[in-house]
Amino acid sequence: MPAPNIHGRHPSPRRQTSKAGILRSCPGALAAFLLLPAITQAEAYADPPPEAVDAPYAAALEVVTVTSRKREELLQDVPLAITAYSGKELNERGVNDSRELFDTIPNLFFGRRASGLPPVPVIRGVYAAGNDPTIEPSVGFYVDGVYISSALQLDMSLLDIDSVEVLRGPQGTLYGKNTLSGAINIITRNPGDQPVANARVAYGNRSHLEASASVGGPLIEDKLLVKLTAARRKNDPFLYNNVLGRKVEHDDYTGALLSLRALPSDRLSVDLKLDTSRSRPSAGNAEAFSGSTAEYCRARPTGSQEPSGNCPAPWASNPFFAGHGYDFDEKAHNRVVSSDIESTNDQAAHGASLHAVYTGDYLELTSITSYRRFKDDITENRDGSAYPLLNRFGLDYDTRAYSQELRLTSVNNGALQWTLGLFGFKDERKLGMDTGSAAPGRPGLFNAGSASTPIFLDDFRETSRIESDSLAAFGQASYDFNDAWSLTLGARYTRENREISLLSDCDGFACPYFAFAPRGITPNEQKSSARENIFTPLATLSYRPVAHILTYLSASKGYKSGGYAPVFTFSVRPFDSEEVWNYEAGAKSSWLGGRLTANLAVFHMDWKDVQISSFTGSAGFLVQNAASVINQGIELEVSSRLSERFGIGGSYGFLDSHYDMPLAANSASRERRRPNSPRHSLNLYADYRYPLGGGWNLHARSDYSLKSGIIFRSDQVVGDRIQTGNSGLTQTYGLANARLGVESGDWGIHLWGKNLFDKNYYLSAGIFEGIGGGYYGIVGDPRSYGLELSVKL
């Protein structure tokens, strides 16, 4: 293994997919995998590692180095399920944000929710419940070692990326809070000791513009280095709103990153990174589908009936529906939305981090200090209809986060390697909510007993301030008994404090009719606080039967913080953290002199105290700890370089996620399967290069990703039983992307295309509860294509 980089950064060779896993529940799969050595020659421990192999294996895959265990290691030597990409490979795939990255990883699904709500990253079927942006995610996001606490920031752009590491399964020991299902570690490029200037610009249909540029070099030779990167991306909208008579759902991003690196000595490096961005991402304008009562009735003239005849009188006789007899296309995936307003997001993010590393002869001391601020102004159509029922719904979200990590790591290459650390985190969130309906004098949907008594949803206002802090101590050690056997043990102890102050005010005529409203108390202030102590251990036993195969068994625990969900509940009732135990077995292997890697993982997850978002029956949602869930599955990843010119590979994931509790008698669905958890995920790629002479190469790349249909419904817990709601299922969809171009060391010209077959698909789906009813889907991007030019000066 190469010696660690004293400046705390690993080299950045071209990465490819690689991971691990195998479980007790599928011993046959593991046995079959381990029989592969019989097909090829056995290798002695003294054989050279893949990176040292000479011709005729010069076409071997690049060696991948990761820092997932807070030290530099070869990916194939780490007993974890990990996928790693270099920035170069992300560019070759055309990946520029986190959602596109997720499409390539087994058992990882990234769904958007309606109208600016936080995105839903799902790893191995584990995701965060609730419709509130203050609810923390189940996936830990880290940029240069800094934890990103806001769920709204998970749908982020990737700016000047050196590498991305995706760890599947709970990472409660070295990463800590909110890594219940995994962690994503994004590492940006550091300034180099040579002057550099490069630029990249792409233009395509829908006025797609994507441009980035970097410039940097030494300010003081070998002592002070600098680099500035800026990026711009925008798209014209593609969804047609047949009420507003125009297109909606565009994307607009501008960002910059300034990196300063000081090298006072050969042993000390100090990196200061400042970033800022302003974006208007996809806001989740929802396309309604299915023939629910609300959707049929709102699309037909006054007095009309749904085909089943159950269009209730308040809908049919309400005079506001007169004159709104536009056609409603009952077919899904028509990229048409019907809303009286456009849902929008306006985000601003700013951050600063100071990363200092001192490397001695035997120990390395790391300090990471950070400050981040994130603001989001959200306007959404909460009722999901073409009528002004809850058409004035706004969220004003502002969070400040501070963190400090101190880490001491052994740097010798002996049998024992260890890491000890402390982590402190403080988070302050302010959330303002303002909502209303039609102006007084105009009829609304809700009727108090008859159509002649309209209710107006005017002036619900709510302001919440949530503060949390946590302090953790952690440690992990690995001991190599010999060349074959190794044991890793780790543990983390975390103390968390949370408190909320909620001020709610309801002035409108509707206040007395809703149980969640403060019933005339204006204003109404509530406070609450909570404290938790969490212990998250890890144990991994690895065995290397031959030099090119690593197998392991592991058990690890992760947790997601509790909190409050004040939006639309007017309540400060807290919910507790949730925990998961993950049992995993894996095998990582390299074949054909390093030209082929194949990694397999099987896992079983026991998920307790699951946070469930339950509909209250009026318009609010209550998050509570109640459910038990079992998640189990298989993950396989293969990468190959069959020749110097040609490489193929892919990944497959199977997931079974279901409630581990009996169904309630009145459950609408008899299936225990969890929503938002696709059973199958598949990714395939092919990469080809052909020399044209004069230093130029022809480069062709194709990628195909498939996600099976997801269940969408609203479930609730009643006592010790799960009450499942009416279910829907989105279609299985596959997306094909491709790139074709010529490139040299300094220039590149490529044609690119995404969703080449213009597949209509939903990123996620859900149900409009209570207010009009009906199903909705968040529509994925249509076909896009264009030309890209890159230059390095």
TrEMBL record:
Swiss-Prot/TrEMBL GO biological process terms: iron ion transport
Annotated Pfam families: Plug, TonB_dep_Rec_b-barrel
GO CC annotations, alphabetized: cell outer membrane
Subcellular localization, as worded in the UniProt entry: Cell outer membrane
Residue stretches making up the TonB-dependent receptor plug domain: 75-183
Stored Gene3D superfamilies: TonB-dependent receptor, beta-barrel domain
Keywords, in A-Z order: Cell outer membrane, Ion transport, Iron, Iron transport, Membrane, Signal, TonB box, Transmembrane, Transmembrane beta strand, Transport
Residue stretches making up the TonB-dependent receptor-like beta-barrel domain: 344-756
SUPFAM superfamilies documented for this protein: Porins (SSF56935)
Signal peptide residue numbers: 1-44
InterPro entries referenced in this protein's UniProt entry, alphabetically: Beta-barrel_TonB, Beta-barrel_TonB_sf, Plug_dom, TonB-dep_rcpt-like
Topology in membrane: Multi-pass membrane protein
Family annotation (PANTHER family): FERRICHROME IRON RECEPTOR-RELATED (PTHR32552), TONB-DEPENDENT OUTER MEMBRANE RECEPTOR (PTHR32552:SF81)
Protein family: Belongs to the TonB-dependent receptor family.
Protein name per Swiss-Prot or TrEMBL: TonB-dependent receptor
